Amino acid sequence: MKFNRFIPFAAPSQLLVCETDGFSLRAAVLRRADHDLNVLYRAQTEQVDMAEGLSDVLAALKNQGWQGGGAAILLSPAVFSTLVELPVNPKKPRPLAQMLELVRWEAEPLLLQHVTRWSVGHLLVGQGYMTEEQARAVMDLQQGKPSANGNLAMAEQFSLRRFGDLAVEMGYIKRSQLNACLTGQEWLKSGDEAIECGWAAQGAVEDIPGTYNWLVSCVHRSLLQRWTDAFARHGVKLRAMYPLTGCSAALLPAAESNAVLLETQPGLGLGARLAGGSYTALRHYLHPNKAALDICLESYHALHAPPREPVWLACWPPAPELAAELEHMLEVDIQRLPHAAAGDGVSPGMCGAAYHALGLGEATRCAGVRVGGPLPPVADRLEVRAAALALALFALLGVAELSLWVRKSSIDSYKQQVDASWRSIDEAVKRINAKTAEIGQIKDKIKSLRGEQSRLENLAHFYDQDIPERMYLVKGVLGMLQTVVDDEVVIERLDEPDKSDKSAAKPAAAANPAQPAGPLDAKRIEAEHFELEAWALSDSAAQTFVKRVGDAAANWDLQVTESKVAFGKGPLNANGFTIKLRLVKLAEPDGKIIRLSNPKSYETPTFE
């Protein structure tokens, strides 16, 4: 029995159930309500490509109000279920790896035989695209057998050709019908050998001591992964795949321990016999052209059931007259296996698989192939160990609570004394905090007064020293230029760059890279500088002017840097030489002005 039967919240409350026969897809969203199921939404499509069909049905469900996501299960004829006999007692299970190896050893050849049934010819006949006689004729030609008219040449011509291509060339089917079957075949069979299995323990085999029946379901791993990826692309997690027939057994009443179950799908049938609540026989029937009545009759007779055992019938699509026909033919009472959720678009197998996945039915009557492999025994499961650990923690917590309750009375009296002490401490802390806040206000006031004092000192220094020194330097430069200008030189511009420009305060060595500086120039910076532009009639006049400016600037602790003389137009567009130079006042890095020489004392000239 599933673990979520004991812990109901371990299973989801809603489940997406999908069912495919290889050429169509049905989907329904079922909700668990107490111990029953309700259908919320349903959709179906006849799309042959299952990836596109899944997109269609999920979009239709969302249009009806489904929020998407969650868990899903899938019923597919690609999943094969059978009874296998294993020397494993269900009460003494083997380790998971060993059990998986035993089941695969028994199930792998049966699955390979089952997959051969999904040949192109079988699918074409099952869909009604061609008759069995036509399929037999194509196979004869394919195998090189002579035709009925004895034409051996034609048989040799078409031998070893593909069945579908031969059927198209012989005019039995259309190319579109062949393509549809090939597309459906991709979702029914796989060429790899790896398989995934699921199992459920049954009863002991009567005539073989120490051997037990196990209900096994298996599918190719690549096909399971392909379906898992298809659901994952839509944000849905595929939990398991189930066989198309056989899942309705989960709907049988729990008290029905001895019974015969007949289940039909188009072209498929299943007969199962339960004794003591466990499977004792399981027969699959596959014939695309057989009617449901014939399939049920052959399945029932193959079980060799006693005449008095109750017979349950699960039929899809619904056929109310089938039960009456079986009663007439078998002369036994037929009980239909209905469910409130089964009906339009929801088969009994879908309801049974949902019962099994949600833990509502008997777990041993249905077996699915779980994505990720079968779960280990209950005692080895992580959730069981977590529950045991939680119970142990609860027990420890109970003991701790009892101990704390015993000590609580003695602690309460001591707590009252401590509370009284804390109240006195709190009052003292409040007084200290008040004093601390008062001291902080005084500190802030002192800091504010110091800032105001510094601002006033800087302002006094600016008006007392910086402004007079600046005026003295500017007047000196203007007077100096007046003494060095003659009739052949015209001063065009004298500019003093903004002192806020940080690029002006640069090392003296970088002021004029072309002119070598003194031994200490590399450590000095520019404190002041002026940019002078003039024009001279001749090159000799220009060079003389530059030299005069340098000699005169030395008297004001200035240096001439970056002097340039070049031919250029002057006033009135006259030919001459343009002069550009910089007058720089140097200072030490600490701001101390460098005195190059003693400035000559002369009266500062005035300009009208």
Automatic annotation (TrEMBL):
Keywords of the record, alphabetical order, are: Coiled coil
What are the Low complexity biased-composition ranges?
Answer: 505-519
Q: Which residues form a coiled coil?
A: 432-459
Residues of the region (Disordered) are: 497-519
Instruction: List the protein's name.
Output: Uncharacterized protein
Say which species the protein is native to: Methylomonas koyamae
